[in-house]
Records
---
Amino acid sequence: MKKSYCLLFIIFFTLVGYSQNFESFASGIKINNTIYNITGSQPIQLINPDPGAQFFDGLSLGTFGQNANCMSITGGEVKTWKTATSNVCAVTLNWRVYTAGSPSGGFNAVPLTQVFDCNTVTSIFDDGFGPCSANDQKWKDYTLNTNFLSGLTPGNYILEIFYSFDGSDTTTSTCETTRFINN
């Protein structure tokens, strides 16, 4: 009987030691002047908390003329959390455009370099926007101006976006793990 308890004790603490200690809880993309949510479950946590805000997944952005200069990625944002013994080191926006039905081509990587911690006195991020809790961070860049229609011929296209973020589940000083947020 003692062997069973010992084995159960070892298995429990092994699983606890490998749990996730950093993750994202909301993400969004800004196209022209509209912020679309990519992930987020509670309205207060969304990047765009407006009740009518759309999610990006499966969204049709409309019809545009050849070489139209009217569709640009103008911002990206991800909210992350971490424990006191873990780390989030970097967040990258990755995007590509391809002909509908033919996924191909590499992704363009854009680091989100503006990092805002949670002010635990006010429970608002240091940029003044959005509620937060201790150890939450916001990674964003709203200075982008990437025209994703440039050079495309007439046709139906897909804009694919995902975020990657690096961190550590076990230490505050390394970044050995990469996680992903897909639309």
Note: Helices lie at 2-17.
---
Amino acid sequence: MTKGKPDPSSLFSAVERLNLKTTEALIVENAPLGVEAANRAGIPCIVVLNNTPLDTTDFKSLISEERILKRTESAFNFLQKWCSE
């Protein structure tokens, strides 16, 4: 890949290699540029902050707050719900 995030070409490539549709994939990110790339690709995304110095306000214009999780462990419930839809 010659372009970095927020260019979505690497995400399109990954989805294609996995033989998925963009609606069947889920991006897990920890940076605003990654969320922007997922948005441009039309791929659902969640943010896991863990120990990053970022907080929900850094993602406010990019993703809904319920998709911003503080710890990896918090993603489990979200993923269970997402997979059952």
Note: Residues 32-41 form the longest helix (10 residues).
---
Amino acid sequence: IRHDEPWDSEWNSQFHDLCPACFKDPRLELAPSEATIGVVVGENTIFRDPGPAKRMPNRTGGFIGGTRMGEVSDGTSNTILTVECKPVCWMDPSGDPTWEEVKKRPPVSRNGMTKIGMADGSVQVIRDSIDQNIWKCLLERNDGEPVSVPFD
């Protein structure tokens, strides 16, 4: 993958059908290029955008800002790393859900539930009717709000 080229350049397009299994829900029938698990990108999330001055030249997406473990002051078991999302090409940077898109509710619901990956590596299931304030606290790595996590 050439990171100095757009994700859909002629060169990078040859990798579209090589989506890593960690970005796919194995229960779903998806095109080889499609991912249904994404990271949430936003200022107080694990994957924050450091702004134009600190981005890699010719940014094409992917991991854009480093977060140290010490910056996850709410604790890794209380901080969301990944969420289920609508199918999108795994290399398309617009496919990662943004903070603004998911701050009110989980982006995808299956039978009233959604799977989330926590920063401690665990995978949890929550109801899509989760209290909006609890959901927001789980998305942020450093809000300092105590959370009683309603995992199912």
Note: The longest helix spans residues 132-139.
